[in-house]
Write a structure and sequence with these properties.
alpha/beta; Cytidine Deaminase, domain 2; 6-stranded mixed beta sheet
Length: 137
Amino acid sequence: MFILDKGFAEEMIAHAREEVPNEACGLLAGVNGRVTKLYRCSSAEKSPYRYFVDAKEQLQAMREIDEKGWELLGIYHSHTHTEAYPSKTDVELAFYPDALHFIVSLADWEQPVIRAFRIVDEKIIEVKLLMVEMMES
C-alpha cells in the first residue's frame, strides 16, 4: 500500500486536465515512502497517446532530489480517454523499477481515477493507493 496526500493527488489531476488533449507527466519525490514534492514536467512527446518526460526538466528534478537526500518515489502521467492502467508503451518505457508509476485517467472528467503500479521486467503489479489528508509534521 502507498499513502498519498490528497493535495498531491489533486495536483496531478489538475496538471492532467490542464494538458488536455495531451498527456501530462511529472515526478514524485520524498523520503521514507512519503511524498514531499511533486515536479510537474513537460512531455517532450506533446501527444494524447504517449508521454516522455522532458530530459532537461528530469535532470533538474533528479539533481534536486539527490541534493535533498530524497528518493524518486514515483512517475505520473495521464491517460486522456482510457482507464488508469499501463499501456504497452507505458510498460516498455518503465525505466525506473524502484519507482511507482501513477496513472491519472480522465476517461470520466468529473471523477478522475488515479492508480499506482510497480512495473518490473514488463510485469505489472498494482499497488493499493490510500489517499489521505496529511498533517504537517
